[in-house]
Amino acid sequence: MNQAPTAKEVHTYIQINTTCNQKCVFCNRPPEIASKQVFKLENIKKRIKEISTNPEVARIIFTGGEPLLYPHLPEVIAWAKKYGFITEIQTNGTLLHTKITELKKAGLDIINFAFHSHKKNISNRLRGTKFGFEKIIKNLKLADKMGFTIHIIHVINSLNYQDLSGFIDYINHLNLQQFWLNLSLVVPEGWAWENKWIIPRMKDVQPYLIKAMENCKKYNNKFDISEIVPLCIVNGFEEHAISTLFKISGLEIIDDYLTGKRSLDFTNPTSDYAAKAPQCRKCRLNNICAGFYPRLKELYGVADFIPRQDDPLPVYKKLFPQRFKITKYDK
Fold first, then answer.
1. pLDDT tens, 170-208?
2. What CATH number should be reported for the domain holding residue 281?
């Protein structure tokens, strides 16, 4: 999304299993839930019904593990559609062909494909397997052909950040009819925190990220940048920073996992999820910036976060276009 929603909205992630056919080195699921666990079907249905009583919840994202390994996934999707939700799944894409027809009939709206490198050797290393790379490509094209809304999730990490623009080129040459790109900074939790080497410094990523976003613009791609993204890292592309869009819109994320539930409210970031450096108080965009992951300070300090002193008005015009009337003097 490149413009903030105009009303309060809540997105709920429901974890339906922890079983996965891959072992991504940066997975943000806690290692202690890596055993084969699933929610009972009746409990998932009950939870969806409970969520439906909150009019602010617009969509449910089913996650895992690998949700395609959950035996009742089509039934769960159909149940959520019964209550009027937009439905999504997060998947590594390798098993999609086994259930895609059932999911289409059930009413699934959006498929979030995890695709972290167009280079097979890097992809395999990141996914912890030697298998499945070709299936990701095949199933991307299949989902596109069947009319699903496709989001391509590309987690930026130490092994792939230097080739972000190459990935953008690759995706645009797959001849997909429509897709949305999500360039997602690795979350320093779960397996990523166990494998700290996979978490790059912001200052190292920044020039490659800027170049990749310029490449997205060249192709007229729809794209955004997540997760927690400080605005000093995305100069010129602030309207694509998801955490800022969520912050100014009041959008709330609810993680409903087997290990418990937490609310990520970007208007009031919690100390364990988002932080700011002392120098952030001097930034002219501080009030609309969501900050950064606290653990980045533990790894690299805060010197990478440089307060912005440029005119904030152009940024506000992009983020709040409805509040600024364009006159002949602006043209």
1. 999 999 999 999 999 999 999 999 999 999 999 999 999
2. 3.20.20.70
Alpha-carbon distance 114 to 50, whole Å?
Answer: 29
What is the DSSP annotation of 95-141? TGGGTHHHHHHHT--EEEEE---SSHHHHHHHHT-SS-HHHHHHHHH
- The answer to whether residues 212 and 162 touch, using CB atoms and an 8 Å cutoff, is no
The parts of the chain modelled with pLDDT lower than 50 are 1-6, 326-331
Contacts of 16 (CB under 8 A, 6+ apart): 38, 39, 44, 62, 63, 64, 65, 67, 70, 73, 76
Alpha-carbon distance of 17 to 176, in angstroms, equals 30
Q: From its phi and psi, is residue 273 left (phi > 0), alpha (psi between -120 and 50) or beta? A: alpha
This prediction has a pTM of: 0.91
**DSSP class of residue 308?**
P
Q: Which residue do the tokens 């009746």 mark?
A: 42
The count of structural domains within the chain is 1
Is 329 contained in some domain? no
Q: Is 2 within a domain?
A: no
Gap between the Cα atoms of 90 and 257, Å rounded: 14
